Amino acid sequence: MYIRNAELTLSDPMFFYSLPIHVGMLNVVIADAELELIPGGEMLDDYQVRKYAKKRKKPAAEVLLDSNFLHGAIERHFPGGSTRMGRPDIFYILLQVLQESILNKRGGLLRVYIHTKHNKVIHIAPQTRVPKSYNRFVGLMEDLFKKQEIQSGQEKLLTLKDADLFSLLDDLGKEVVLLSPRGGRPSKPEDIIREDMSLVIGGFAEGDFQTDVYSRYSAHSIFPDELTIWSVASEIVVRYECMFGPL
């Protein structure tokens, strides 16, 4: 059931206090995300990495791994890894979709978490607006990895903490729905959506989860072919909004 003071907006500090505690919530949890700084060791001395870091005017160890610019370096140090590793562009598109959704902007019923493959968890506050420029987004993520949090005034917009996927999901305390191409026969999104749930989607462009998610959760699929993570997330968010949201 959706109950809220219609006169309050997302920017109003009392907005979230106007939501009754029993109201459901959709947590979107991106698992094993390929989002990281350039790995330490020999890769930091790679000529392509040094050139790219110099262009960014940052130490190589503080630069986000991005296969769009470091494809060759990734292949040299992680053979076969360039099709999966270093994909901040995925999360740039994903967060544009989720943070600008009606469910987030008008409903306040959406929370987004990114769990990285190195067991770092990023929480994106509902009021966070993702930079329109990809380069600014990359810089924002680099600042987050360095500072552990991004604030605007007294508001924490982004936080980075150590946590594995299972600990995160246990702390959220909601029914977990895992989406994966291994989910078998596709289900209608409406059949798997719950009013109070944590939706788990893989944060990678190729391959499968590194965390042993299948040992704890049953996998579901909503389409016979593979989809981008922002396509999957948008399908669920729109359906959730129609079922439980503000409109």
What does this structure look like?
This protein has 247 residues and is an alpha/beta fold. It folds into two domains: 22-35 and 86-244, 3-Layer(aba) Sandwich (Alpha/beta knot); 41-77, no CATH class. Helix content is 33%, strand content 18%. It is built from eight helices and eight strands. It has an eight-stranded mixed sheet with strand order 4-5-3-2-1-7-6-8, sandwiched between helices. The radius of gyration is 19 Å and the shape is globular. The protein starts with 25 loop residues before the first strand and ends with a helix. The model is unreliable at 1-22 (pLDDT under 50).
Topology of helices and strands:
Layout: E1 26-33, H1 47-56, H2 67-77, H3 88-99, H4 102-107, E2 110-116, E3 120-124, H5 134-147, E4 149-152, E5 155-162, H6 165-172, E6 175-179, H7 189-192, E7 197-202, E8 219-220, H8 229-244
Helix pairs in contact: 1-2, 3-8
